[in-house]
């Protein structure tokens, strides 16, 4: 008995030694700052001075009453929904096209994935120049084909700016989700499709009644992933508009950064981050719920 | 089994449509490449015209007018050092979690995966304060330890899902032959995890190579930081010299492209494994 217990303990020590480096770094540099951010969100910390003053829920009260946060929330919702809808629609269509194309399948898949490789900063810069009013590729193209009327100050026109950033993100992200959809499509067994074919189902019926239900799990995952990634957009906004013109492209994450670093209000910035974390947790829980209810159905 | 059908009209149609979409997707990258090979005057005169000569002055100016060489070095060191340490640390942890079916390890799996939900922006202010306490703020060690910590969540998911496909018999045989658990892992199991390690290094490495906020805020100011940070600072600094910035973007994109073309299958494996759990 004693021997056995000793043996078991020895095994656990080995396992513990295996996980120790990862566990220590993870706790030290992810969990500890995350947990302490709950504390800092209750302070008026400026990020530099050693004095951290506790102010209770004042930051949260400000978040839910300030017009600036309301504006950032609105921008975040518009941008995130735009990205998620178009990224998924385009990625799914591309996956279907690439799955069915007869020639150059692998080349298409690779080319459509290329934008994913580019950093947020670089993609933001390239598109910023393409959008430029006087010297940008888009307006030059319109001028060359004689459609001067279509020329726009793409990033200066406040009703367009946010969507223009959204387009960059859809362009950069669609290839990633396409790969996941492709894997989902390829997991649909050909047996099922052939059986339906024998039963006389048309191509359209096969698509609606077999392919769509079978990849709905992939859709749920992709939609959640793109929503969460949409909430975290930062680099493109930083290089393309810096939150402007005015506050028209200031999202929650960008607000968090600006109040934290430019305005020396890291306590308030951290409180904004805590709100963001709860939004992400809710989205994740919803995804798990939807996935689980589907499993029961099948 | 199925006879290869002759391509029909709609097959050609689909091909043409896809070709047009692919060209639209590719265009911004081509635009960056062609602009990098044109003088500033030519970019402003006709931005969509192709370069007429092979013009490399932009690249010369880039290295002469900025410390871009240091930036490249920093990007390479950050990416390589982080990935080497990640591969020394994360697979071992995932191995222990997957092979030891104890309550504690089950908890650890959930605990690690929860890290995927926490956005960097939430904890960055306290993280920097902590780095100052450890005296690693303003050094390369700051981003490196954060990258390792940040890779634990996705790495555990990826390796644990892959480890289920590695048979236990070989490990047992090694143990009977007198291998310590440590040796068994590194000599027997780890080599079988090659494709998984490939996916991990490539996807995670790309994230570090392209990262902006961490090196921008943590590395000491007044000197070149990383390629991405330099490009971002050029955009504000050289508002009139797009040619130089484009040269920098090409230097940022090309290594990622080369890695992608050489190791494509690892990209697909890693992305689908990540998507499988969400």
Report on the structure:
The complex is a heterodimer of chains A (298) and B (278). Chain A contains 13 helices and no strands. With 298 residues, chain A is mainly alpha-helical. Chain A folds into two domains: 35 residues; 216 residues, MetI-like (MetI-like fold, Orthogonal Bundle), CATH 1.10.3720.10. Chain A is globular, with a radius of gyration of 25 Å. Chain B is mostly helical and 278 residues long. Chain B has two domains: 51 residues, no CATH class; 210 residues, MetI-like (MetI-like fold, Orthogonal Bundle), CATH 1.10.3720. In chain B, 77% of the residues lie in helices and 0% in strands. In chain B, helix 3 packs across helix 13 and helix 7 runs antiparallel to helix 10. Chain B is globular and about 75 Å long. The mean pLDDT of chain B is 88. The chains are: A mainly alpha (298), B mainly alpha (278). At the A-B interface, helix 1, helix 3, helix 4, helix 5 and helix 6 of A face helix 1, helix 4, helix 5, helix 6 and helix 7 of B.
């Amino acid at each position: 008995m004693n021997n056995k217990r000793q043996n078991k303990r020895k095994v656990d020590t080995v396992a513990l030694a295996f996980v120790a480096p990862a566990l220590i770094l993870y706790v030290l540099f992810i969990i500890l700052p995350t947990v302490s951010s709950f504390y800092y969100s209750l302070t008026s910390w400026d990020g530099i001075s050693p004095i951290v003053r506790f102010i209770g829920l004042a930051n949260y009260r400000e978040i839910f009453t300030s017009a600036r946060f309301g504006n950032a929330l609105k921008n975040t919702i518009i941008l995130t929904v735009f990205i998620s809808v178009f990224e998924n629609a385009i990625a799914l269509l591309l996956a279907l096209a690439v799955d069915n194309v007869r020639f150059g399948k692998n080349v298409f898949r690779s080319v459509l994935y290329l934008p994913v490789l580019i950093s947020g900063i670089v993609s933001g810069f390239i598109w910023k120049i393409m959008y430029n009013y006087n010297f940008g590729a888009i307006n030059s193209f319109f001028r060359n084909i004689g459609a001067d009327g279509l020329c726009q100050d793409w990033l200066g026109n406040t009703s367009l700016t946010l969507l223009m950033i959204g387009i960059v993100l859809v362009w950069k992200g669609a290839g990633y989700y396409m790969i996941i959809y492709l894997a989902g499509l390829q997991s649909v067994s050909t047996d099922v499709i052939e059986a339906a074919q024998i039963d006389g189902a048309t191509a359209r019926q096969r698509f609606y009644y077999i392919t769509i239900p079978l990849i709905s799990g992939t859709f749920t995952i992709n939609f959640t992933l793109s929503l969460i990634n949409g909430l975290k957009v930062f680099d493109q906004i930083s290089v393309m508009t810096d939150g402007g013109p005015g506050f028209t492209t200031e999202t929650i994450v960008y607000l968090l950064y600006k109040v934290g670093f430019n305005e020396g209000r890291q306590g308030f910035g951290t409180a904004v981050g805590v709100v963001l974390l709860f939004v992400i947790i809710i989205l994740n829980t919803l995804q798990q719920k939807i996935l689980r209810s589907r499993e029961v159905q099948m | 089994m199925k006879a290869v059908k002759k391509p029909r009209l709609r097959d050609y149609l689909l091909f043409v449509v896809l070709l047009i979409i692919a060209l639209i997707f590719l265009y911004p990258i081509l635009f960056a490449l062609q602009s990098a090979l044109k003088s500033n005057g030519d970019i402003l005169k006709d931005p969509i015209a192709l370069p007429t000569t092979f013009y490399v002055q932009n690249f010369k100016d880039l290295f002469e007018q900025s410390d871009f060489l240091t930036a490249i070095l920093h990007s390479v060191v950050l990416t390589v050092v982080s990935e080497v340490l990640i591969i020394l640390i994360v697979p071992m942890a995932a191995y222990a979690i997957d092979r030891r079916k104890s309550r504690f390890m089950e908890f650890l799996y959930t605990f690690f995966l929860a890290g995927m939900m926490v956005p960097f922006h939430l904890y960055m202010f306290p993280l920097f304060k902590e780095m100052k306490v450890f005296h690693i703020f303003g050094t390369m060690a700051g981003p490196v330890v954060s990258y390792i910590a940040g890779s634990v969540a996705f790495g555990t998911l990826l390796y644990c899902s892959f480890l289920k496909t590695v048979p236990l018999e070989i490990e047992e045989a090694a143990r009977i032959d007198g291998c310590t658990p440590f040796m068994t892992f590194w000599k027997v199991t780890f080599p079988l995890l090659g494709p998984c390690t490939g996916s991990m290094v490539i996807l995670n490495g790309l994230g570090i190579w392209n990262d902006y906020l961490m090196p921008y805020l943590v590395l000491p100011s007044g000197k070149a930081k990383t390629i991405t940070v330099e490009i971002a600072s050029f955009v504000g600094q050289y508002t009139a010299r797009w040619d130089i910035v484009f040269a920098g973007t090409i230097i940022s994109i090309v290594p990622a492209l080369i890695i992608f073309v050489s190791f494509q299958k690892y990209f697909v494996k890693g992305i689908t494994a990540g998507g499988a759990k969400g």
